[in-house]
Design goal:
The chain is mainly β. It has 14 domains: about 100 residues, Immunoglobulins (Immunoglobulin-like, Sandwich); about 375 residues, TolB, C-terminal domain (Neuraminidase, 6 Propeller); about 90 residues, Immunoglobulin-like (Sandwich); about 90 residues, Immunoglobulin-like (Sandwich); about 90 residues, Immunoglobulin-like, CATH 2.60.40; about 90 residues, Immunoglobulin-like (Sandwich); about 90 residues, Immunoglobulin-like (Sandwich), CATH 2.60.40; about 90 residues, no CATH class; and more. Helices cover about 5% and strands about 40% of the residues. The protein has 19 helices and 112 strands. The strands form 34 sheets. Strands 1, 38, 40, 42 and 43 form a five-stranded mixed β-sheet that branches. Strands 8, 9, 10, 11 and 12 form a five-stranded antiparallel β-sheet that branches. The chain is flat, with a radius of gyration of 60 Å. The N terminus is likely disordered. Pfam families: CHU_C, PKD_4.
């Protein structure tokens, strides 16, 4: 029987939408592209005007359906749909919308929108509405999906092909929703969230998220965060996002990513990369690149993209990337009438061929940042393949399909979803083609075939490619019946069918994947269940065996099989026992040997009496079975196959009458005997000198083998001959030997280890010398400094040897490493111990005196060091510093150059010392800054070679320190000018000597005065002329030089100023008249500084100072100066003014004057005047200014003062331009009025104040429309209102900044402005009047009111229904009820009733005449006939057995054993062994199914009295397990009988004799290892 693989694969149909649904694009500023002509052509008919987000969709033939910017949906006529405005998207969102068809409801589309405020929402468009132009379904607009999300959304088909995944992102979580069946599923149990912590870098909401066409990858970008782009895996069966990879543009400055798109084959990713975030501008300074990532590239691909285009300039802002139906990728060109294009996006690198000016747009239109996104799976076609004999049997989305050879395969292009004008072409990869939509094809032979489907629609073709695997069906060749003897007379015989019968089943077939198994029934063989274990015990008699040969390559190929059958016949009698194989070692390795075959006879007989049997030997099984062509001399048989193995067949023939013949076999083999060739003795160096050394024993294998090439030879090494002979204690390689060791080699034949040979060899372990570290050998050059000296190398022997015995080792010196490694034995010559060198590296070799190959080397350097010569610097004479503390710090390094005297060796080091001894011994070096005292200090300089400090030279020099003169600070020298004020006077400079000297002794120093710093620095010793004394001069600076008489170089200078101060002359002011303060008490505080100008009388010297005094004496002595302000009265005497030179107050003159006081009025504060404007609101009103007089006077005598009003402060001060008291204000408000009040007797005594006139605008309340809305689900007539949206009507064009609107429940409250309503406001009756008040914010007395109504409409009443139970596949009518104006079901239907045949929750929304809606849910429970998966059996008991039905299905089930009495439990207890039928009935009447079951168990008794009832005992139903073994024992455990599971059972006898009535035990053993036992009664 042959078996062909069942229908295996279900793949989604070819998405011909890729040829039509993406044919129209609308984007940017009225930009559009039409692909229907075969090339993209610019089109300017679109109404869309957007900076970023947009979306478009067409039908399968490329006819435009609709497009959107996320806020408005336009139909194919470029007119907004009637209900297509006010969508929650925002056109400035990067991906503001995507349009997705509902795969489960025809002509219905989801418009998914996104914006920062509203989040992710969707609206439903039904293309049947608006006469086929489509419209947003009422009540199905702006349905919330997710509140918080970035400006990103993408979509792809799910793995089942029945819904679309919608994926969005909110840092750092990807969320996937499934769309279909009239809704986008937001049930948390089915929403898939994947948090990817690393993507938290995507903090900027602006960017793109994009799924690959094959739905396996998802890319994500953010323009505002540098380097923010990620690629993750996407599982379109679960919606899970995982395995993030960070993408970067290497070191490029263009590292802000925006647009993203995959190549059509999903292998390459393209990003729009920018150097800056150009926002919604044109990016005039942005550097833009299109970069390509090879997703499957070598390590580092994620940071090494290929740049396809680099653009900067007038318009190079960020832009989206979008795959087109022509297989090319297009880039948005910001602010330009162009699209860029990647012409070959499946090609690597620059071969992708990016063109910046790729597609010209229509005149007057421009591209902006966005392009319309499409469902990515539009661009990933596929097709369906099923077994034509079986129909579509479900399956998976695996891109491979698997069938058995010869299977007719039904291919399906899903032609019903293609455009009517589309054509198809199939290439089956076997040289045949077909152009029908759904062909049936049979492949000619096993193999993998690449099937290609090409669909052409209009000017475009799409190709789907898949691999169909055809597996070979094996042939089950016929098998000879098997004849066996019951060798031990126990009624059974074992047989391993794999030893002979398997080869017959396979025959000449060579496929290594073919596997053979054996079964007891045809059903088990077909289902590949219950294969028997080999060897299998056969009962005496005939057993039919079913052999199955299977293609075991993989799970799919295992369904490709064939079966055959044969009988195994077991006859009573003895059988031959298989003897052990005969194996010998070849004596001459020619492959042949003389065997005594009769040596196996004892094993063949296995205890059988030899006299009863005849044994013959044969070279074939047929001869052995037939008793023909036996070997004539079996005791001396030479094998015919060199080395073997050769099979000998034995025939054992029972000589008794009716005896059984049986056969067996054994192999004879001859194995080569290896030779252990002698390995020469050798020696090793003890590298660690620990008397141990690792030796690689396998390195001696070649010596042991020599010319032997048998790959079965195995060599081992041992420490004793006994171990080698016994093949025990084999050493590992490398082996750590201890001291000199003898090794014993064993070589044997691994196929037959007794074939072996041994030999031995010795390895001697010699001491390994150690070349210890040798210090460098340095000599100081002689005075010639020729760089060469003679070295005694033997002085280094002791360092080389260390603690080693010199008698055991030789030490030699060489000039190269090669010579040191070669040594004398290698032909190298060592140098003599007395060796002349200019410096070099010496190579030392120390070697074992008895084994020169045991050596080690080291190196040391010979160095000849230069000897320095020190030169003496000149004596240094220095002055003490200004502290004259008798010590001075000297930087000794200043003498280094003199000491070196031109020597430039970098190793020469200079140090300074206080004594010759310290310098000679290089001891106590002086610090770098050395302190010397007054007088002479001798310093000793030492110069030595830092590489060899014994090479040194010393010299001395002196440092002399003298006292330093100090020029102390000198005060200025001032003289008052005489009456001439000519600015010249005589100065005695010598009077300043004492200031210059300070505490210094005058006898030790000389002081001179000069007119410049240069002369002071030169001094008279330098040729400068000092000033004479006295010195006639005006203002000047004098420079002083003080020098030490002993050393004129030790000098210091300072300076001071001399001044000739001007003599001031005081002017005389007239008597002063003062206005009294408001108290008019005759006393007044006077600011005396106001008279300074008259006292100065035109003198402008800024140093002149004026002061005021009460007497002439105080003025002369500059004492008791009066404070200002100064209180004067009518009794105040004359005041005396003094003017002096502030630089020299001895230069002064004085004068005097007197005060007169008059009374002064006060202008008191006046309140501002405010008035409401008239109805004309011209900004001007009449004000009576005289109303302010009383406030100005505030109690002062009106008869004493005069009050006037003025337009400015200047007019008030000047008493000009007085205003009339009945004053019309200007139109500029507020207006300031200035008040003047003056004394009638002295107009100079007056005061002013001011106040404002304000004219407030009079508001007018506009009339608002009544506010009406639908009640909520409570239907209580009460709702919350927010009247803030009415403000604009009340304001009616008036400024909201100038006026405030409030709302009230009564006219009185509105007039008073009291009890303003807060929001939300809850109405108190279903219909109510609201009073609006508008008032001026500056003057709330200026107000107006109006009214409007509010009303709450009742919602329609509809209740949830169900649950309603239906049977699967049976139609049921759901009725929402009559009396509503319109209906909308979750299925998209818009009728009062709908017909369903599947379970689920069906939502229906009903609308009344007021436009109010309510939604109810009708729950439909789908019931179905049960599927009994299996019945679990608890058996092997007498009366406590169980049956449990394991069922699946959507129904509510009950269970019965008789189809009459039912129970809820699927378990039946306390059952007797026997045959049962379990019935499972759906309680909802959807049907009844049944399954048979068998309980195996032993009956409790039997009565073998031959009355026809219970005459034999057999395990009930055991025939269902034909391979069971059944044993019966008496109560003492003696085996009485083994019975056949398919026999009638035990008749109660033993060896023909009836057994007594008693209790007997049974044991049942099953082939799977299980067993059970029990007892029963024999009754007679």
């Amino acid at each position: 029987m042959k078996k062909i693989l069942l229908a295996f694969l279900f793949i989604l149909p070819l998405l011909s939408n890729a040829q039509g649904e993406a044919s129209w694009w609308f984007f940017g500023h009225n930009g559009g592209v039409d692909f229907n002509s075969g090339v993209p052509l610019g089109n300017g008919s679109g109404a869309l005007f957007t900076f970023e987000g947009c979306s478009t969709i067409s039908d399968e033939c490329g006819n435009l359906l609709m497009y959107s910017d996320g806020s408005t949906v336009w139909n194919r006529n470029h007119v907004s749909m009637p209900n297509g405005t006010g969508l929650s998207g925002n056109s400035s969102s990067a991906q503001s919308a995507i349009i997705i068809p509902d795969l489960q409801v025809s002509n219905v589309y989801f418009v998914v929108t996104i914006s920062a405020g509203a989040g992710l929402q969707y609206s439903i468009v039904n293309m049947n509405l608006d006469a086929g132009l489509g419209d947003v379904v009422p009540g199905r607009k702006n349905i919330q999906i997710q509140q918080n999300t970035q400006e990103k959304v993408t979509a792809s088909l799910n793995a089942n092909g029945d819904r679309y995944w919608i994926v969005t992102f909110d840092d750092p979580t990807y969320t996937a929703y499934q769309a279909g069946g009239g809704l986008i599923d937001t049930n948390p149990a089915r929403v898939v969230s994947s948090t990817i912590p690393v993507t938290s870098a995507l903090t900027d909401a602006r960017g793109y998220i994009r799924l690959s066409p094959d739905g396996s990858k998802i890319a994500n970008t953010s323009i505002g965060s540098a380097g923010s782009a990620f690629l993750c895996d996407f599982d379109n069966s679960t919606g899970v996002v995982s395995n993030p990879v960070t993408l970067s543009n290497g070191s490029s400055a263009s590292n802000r990513f925006y647009g993203a798109e995959f190549s059509p084959n999903s292998q390459l990713l393209y990003l729009n990369a920018n150097s800056q975030d150009s926002g919604n501008g044109c990016g005039t300074s942005n550097v833009r690149e299109v970069i390509q990532f090879n997703i499957n590239g070598p390590a580092g691909w994620q940071s090494s993209p290929v740049a396809l285009g680099n653009v900067t300039g007038t318009a190079s802002g960020r832009g989206a990337l979008q795959l087109g139906i022509d297989g090319k990728i297009y880039q948005a060109r910001t602010c330009l009438p162009w699209l860029g294009v990647i012409r070959d996006p499946n090609s690597l690198g620059t071969g992708a061929n990016y063109v910046d000016d790729g597609v010209a747009l229509a005149a007057g239109t421009t591209s902006r940042e966005g392009l319309p996104p499409f469902i990515t799976s539009f661009f990933e076609p596929s097709f369906l393949a099923t077994d034509a004999n079986m129909g579509s049997g479900g399956g998976n989305n695996n891109p491979e399909t698997d069938f058995c050879d010869g299977t007719p395969i039904q291919f399906d292009s899903s032609g019903s979803g293609l455009c009517a004008t589309a054509t198809v072409n199939w290439d089956f990869g076997d040289g045949t083609t077909d152009n029908t939509f759904n062909p049936v094809h049979t492949f000619p032979a096993p193999g993998d075939y690449t099937v290609t489907l090409t669909v052409t629609s209009g000017f475009y073709s799409n190709t789907a490619v898949d691999v169909i695997s055809i597996y070979e069906i094996p042939v089950a060749n016929p098998v000879n019946n098997v004849f066996l003897c019951d060798s031990d007379m126990d009624g059974t015989e074992d047989r391993d069918l794999s030893t002979s019968e398997t080869a017959q089943v396979i025959g000449a077939q060579t496929n290594p994947n073919f596997a053979v198994t054996y079964y007891l029934t045809q059903n088990n063989a077909d289902n590949n269940t219950g294969a028997i274990a080999l060897p299998y015990t056969f009962n005496v008699g005939t057993t039919t065996i079913y052999a199955r040969i299977t293609n075991d390559l993989n799970a799919a190929s295992r369904e490709c099989y064939e079966t055959t059958s044969f009988d195994v016949i077991v006859a009573n009698g003895s059988g031959a026992t298989a003897p052990a194989d005969l194996v010998v070692c070849d004596d001459d390795n020619d492959g042949f040997f003389t065997f005594d075959l009769t040596s196996v006879e004892t094993e063949v007989l296995n205890g059988l009496p030899a006299a009863q049997f005849t044994i013959t030997y044969h070279t074939t099984l047929t001869d052995a079975q037939n008793g023909t062509a036996d070997i004539p001399n079996p005791a001396s048989y030479v094998n015919t196959i060199a080395n073997g193995p050769e099979t000998i067949f034995v025939r054992l023939e029972d000589m008794n009458p009716g005896g059984c013949n049986s056969t067996t076999d054994f192999d004879i083999s001859v194995f080569d005997t290896p030779t252990a060739n002698v390995v020469p003795d050798s020696s090793l160096c003890d590298t660690g000198n620990d008397n141990t050394e690792d030796v690689t024993l396998t390195s001696f294998d070649a010596d042991v083998l020599l010319a032997q090439t048998n790959t079965n030879y195995v060599i081992t090494y041992h420490l004793t001959q006994a171990d080698a002979d016994a093949d025990t204690g084999a050493l590992t390689s490398p082996h750590s030997m201890v001291g000199t060791t003898t090794f014993y080699v064993r070589i044997d034949n691994s196929s037959n280890e007794p074939c072996y040979d041994t030999s031995s060899f010795t390895i001697t372990l010699d001491a390994q010398p150690v070349a210890n570290t040798v210090t460098e050998y340095r000599l100081c050059d002689d005075v010639s400094n020729n760089g060469s000296e003679v070295f005694d190398l033997s002085t280094k022997d002791i360092e080389v040897l260390g603690a080693q015995n010199p008698a055991d080792f030789n030490v030699l010196y060489f000039v190269s490493q090669a010579d040191a490694d070669a040594g004398i034995a290698g032909g190298a010559s060592p140098v003599m111990p007395s060796y002349s060198s200019a410096g070099q590296t010496m190579y030392v070799r120390i070697e074992n005196a008895t084994n020169a190959s045991c050596y080690e080397t080291t190196t040391f350097d010979l160095v000849v060091d230069d000897i320095p010569v020190a030169a003496a610097p000149m004596t240094l004479v220095v002055c003490d510093d200004t502290t004259n503390d008798g010590i001075e710090d000297i930087t000794l390094s200043q003498f280094d150059a003199d000491v070196l005297n031109g020597q430039t060796q970098t190793t020469f080091v200079i140090s300074y010392h206080a004594s010759q001894a310290d310098a000679d011994n290089d001891a106590s070096p002086l610090p770098a800054v050395y302190q010397v005292s007054l007088g002479t200090t001798t310093v000793y300089a030492r110069i030595d070679n830092s590489d060899n400090e014994t090479c040194a030279s010393v010299v001395s020099f002196d440092i002399i320190l003298n006292e330093q003169a100090i020029a102390n600070t000198v005060t200025e020298y001032r003289i008052c000018d005489d009456a001439s004020n000519d600015g010249l006077e005589d100065f005695d400079l010598s009077t300043k000597d004492v200031e210059v000297l300070g505490a210094q002794t005058a006898a030790n120093f000389n002081i001179e005065y000069f007119t410049s710093q240069a002369d002071a620095d030169l001094g008279s010793v330098g040729g400068a002329t000092p000033l004479t004394i006295p010195y006639n001069s005006g203002d000047d600076t004098i420079f002083v030089r003080i020098e030490t008489i002993a050393n004129a170089d030790c000098y210091n200078t300072t300076s001071f100023d001399i001044f000739v101060d001007e003599l001031p002359i005081a002017g005389t002011p007239a008597n002063v008249i003062v206005c009294d303060d408001p108290s008019n008490d005759g006393v007044e505080d006077v600011n005396l500084a106001q008279f300074d100008a008259e006292i100065l009388n035109g003198q402008t010297n800024p140093s002149f100072v004026v002061s005021y005094h009460a007497s002439q004496a105080d003025a002369d002595n500059d004492t008791a100066a009066l404070a200002s302000p100064f209180t004067v009265s009518t009794t105040t005497p004359n005041l005396f003014a003094r003017i002096d030179n502030g630089d020299n107050n001895s230069c002064y003159t004085t004068t005097s004057f007197q005060f007169v006081i008059s009374p002064t009025p006060t202008a008191n504060t006046v309140q501002n005047m405010i008035a409401c404007d008239d109805a004309g609101n011209d900004g001007s009103e009449i004000f009576d200014l005289s109303n302010a007089d009383a406030q100005v006077l505030n109690g002062q005598n009106a008869a004493s003062f005069n009050i006037t009003y003025h337009p400015s402060q200047a007019d008030a001060d000047a008493n000009t331009a007085a205003l009339p008291t009945s004053y019309p204000s200007s139109t500029t408000t507020p207006e300031t009025v200035y008040v003047r009040i003056e004394s009638n007797t002295n107009t100079q005594c007056y005061d002013t104040t001011s106040f404002t006139l304000t004219v407030s605008e009079q508001p007018t309340a506009g009339v608002a429309l009544d506010q009406r809305g639908c009640d909520d689900v409570s239907s209580d007539g009460i709702e919350e209102f927010d009247f803030s949206n009415v403000d604009v009507d009340i304001l009616n064009g008036q400024s909201a900044a100038d006026f405030t609107v409030t709302y009230h429940t009564s006219q009185a409250n509105a007039d008073s402005g009291a009890n303003a309503l807060t929001f939300p406001y809850t109405n108190v009756s279903q219909s109510q009047t609201i009073y609006a008040r508008i008032e001026n914010n500056v003057n709330t007395d200026c107000y107006d009111t109006s009214t409007f109504g509010i009303e709450v409409f009742a919602r329609p009443v509809i209740a949830n229904q169900g649950p309603i139970t239906i049977c699967a596949g049976i139609d049921e009518v759901l009725d929402a009820g009559a009396g509503y104006s319109s209906y909308l079901w979750s299925t998209g239907e818009m009728t009062q009733t709908i017909t369903v045949n599947q379970g689920g929750d069906y939502d229906v929304t009903v609308f009344n005449a007021d436009g109010c809606d309510s939604t109810a849910t009708i729950t439909v429970i789908e019931s179905d006939v049960a599927v009994i998966e299996r019945i679990d059996i608890g058996q092997f008991e007498v009366n406590t057995n169980q049956l449990t039905a394991i069922v699946t299905g959507s129904g509510d089930y009950e269970y019965s054993l008789d189809d009459f009495v039912y129970q809820d439990s699927p378990r039946f207890n306390n059952l007797y062994p026997g045959y049962y039928t379990i019935y499972v009935k759906d309680k909802n009447g959807c049907g009844t199914v049944s399954m048979d079951a068998v309980i195996i168990g032993g009956p409790p008794y039997f009565t073998p009295n031959q009355d026809g009832y219970h005459d034999t005992w057999q395990v009930i139903a055991i025939e269902t397990v034909p391979d069971a073994n059944i044993y019966i024992f008496d109560r003492y455990g003696k085996l009485i009988k083994q019975i056949d599971a398919q026999g009638i059972g035990w008749d109660g006898t033993y060896n023909g004799n009836p057994m007594p009535s008693s209790d007997y035990w049974y044991l049942v053993e099953l082939s799977d290892g299980r067993s059970f036992k029990g007892h029963f009664a024999l009754k007679r």
